[in-house]
């Protein structure tokens, strides 16, 4: 490359350094509207830009036009004669823009010109200048007037509108820009090339109407590469803030009969974090232990990995009313938690746990869910940050917002192993399990069910239970109704609380709602029916218990499934209650089951998504021969709903070697064979291939 070419490249690099300096200022200075590089014109201003290297436009209309020259030809201070061309352009620019300023940048100083400008800016008027300025300054003003072709009075006014940048080398600019950016974003060294790319793209696209670089555009450019603005805080400050926030919602029952069960999924989560996985989902049905596993993980991070990992634990159901990040801060989470995670990620792996996305999805509106989905998305884009979220599989299937999230890895929680885990516990508790039915064994493989079963047995009952909802019903009966210190008055209080939470679409409420004495509330907490969030508020120890008590209350009022659905706003929040009602009917009023299901799906005022929910939930029951009329009714009158049922069976693998396959083989297969419905035959073939 020729000497002229190398010098031209140096000039371009010098201008880029200055432009980068102002792009970094744009990130933090809210007074700046936008900047331009090699400007071809400012929108809505009818004049040519003569000082065009860098243009900074402020929101109040003030504009700064910048000339960046790497150095004078002789590497000495610039003279008026050497600057003449730029000075004339500056005069033209300031003539066109009465509110403008011109700023000069160069590695070499501006000598006489800069000394004149400094003097003029400290003198209020040209008349005063003539009376007080020294001979040298008078001479400098004369040289300026000659260079720009103006009177000395006009030249004095011109000089008062001139600014100068630092006289530093390209290397110094690079170091200064990096330090300035480090105070604003995490991984500043990685951010520099992207900002340079933004500037280069901007210069090349000016011809196509992209006339400005905005703060939002710069932030968006960085965020596309996982770089976010971050508070300039040290590690200890951030860790302290995270530790405090992570205590919210940590008071959770994690033992079964006093025993804590170590789950294999904990090791899977740790391994995924160590691999650098960014977005992990922990999922399965209600009561399978998602929160307990996440709390065990939080303990592990705060213990064994406290030196090299950072933790932020968020119990999502404590933030169901939050609609913005400021609301989260009001309720105890750190301000700008994404920025803090980014800053912390410069030094260690950051793990952000978000529990109970399913509860957020059932809230009155979806603002809180959208807020957390947005946070997860932003956090997942940051290098060295892992987000782990927990959600029931049921809600993942039914909520489009949750269904649309992309996860790097899904960890499904397995049921407890009966031989290796449950039998040793039963033996330790001296519970005879020799006559346990298959249905009871399956119920007990769910950790929450095993915990309730232990409490029921401790109360003196020896139940043979066929379903989860039968267990919950017995639990309420034995631990609340039959207990002398609680009884029917406590049950009525729980009904009031359940109805209140359902109507308010909330997870906790004031103790006053129960209308029970403090000693009764404490007893309900000790029996693990309720948990105490604070001295004034309580919630049910598990979502399924709320569902069960709600259904008990409405059935006590002799409402049918259809009545209950029509009495509610048919929004996502009612889905768990509808499912609970369905399973409660199956467990306690099997003779009413088919009739009430048909009533609900036949009612025109019941919305399709609720009918679909009912039909797909049928897959979770063990079919009996007497259920065939219900399915024949679906086959004849509601083929689309029947299709949804079968699709759900495929997804669950429920037909695989189960009672469902036998049931469908004996009852539905003859209809399929005799019909000309190829779609039904394809469905049967897929179910058959599962078996």
Structure described in brief:
This protein has 691 residues and is α/β, with parallel strands linked by helices. It is 55% helix and 10% strand. The protein contains 34 helices and 13 strands.
Descriptive account of the structure:
The termini are far apart. The model is unreliable at 1-8 (pLDDT under 50). The strands form 3 sheets. Strands 1-2-3-4-5 form a 5-stranded mixed beta sheet, sandwiched between helices. Strands 7-8-9-6-10 form a 5-stranded parallel beta sheet, sandwiched between helices. A 3-stranded antiparallel beta sheet has the order 11-13-12. The chain is α/β, with parallel strands linked by helices and 691 residues long. The chain has 34 helices and 13 strands. A hairpin with a 4-residue loop joins strand 12 and strand 13. Helix 5 crosses helix 6 and helix 7 (170-182) crosses helix 8 (188-205). The longest helix has 26 residues, at 3-28.
What's the layout of helices and strands?
Blueprint (H helix, E strand, L loop, with lengths): L2 H26 L3 E6 L16 E5 L4 E7 L10 H17 L3 E7 L4 H11 L4 H7 L2 H14 L3 H8 L2 E3 L5 H13 L5 H18 L9 H9 L11 H11 L18 H11 L4 E6 L5 H14 L5 E7 L9 H6 L6 H8 L4 E7 L1 H5 L5 H14 L4 E8 H6 L1 H4 L5 E4 L5 H11 L9 H7 L2 H12 L9 H14 L5 H18 L3 E3 L7 H9 L3 E3 L4 E4 L2 H14 L4 H6 L8 H14 L1 H13 L5 H10 L10 H10 L1 H14 L6 H9 L1 H6 L3 H13 L1
Parallel strand pairs: 3-4, 4-5, 6-9, 6-10, 7-8, 8-9
Antiparallel strand pairs: 1-2, 2-3, 11-13, 12-13
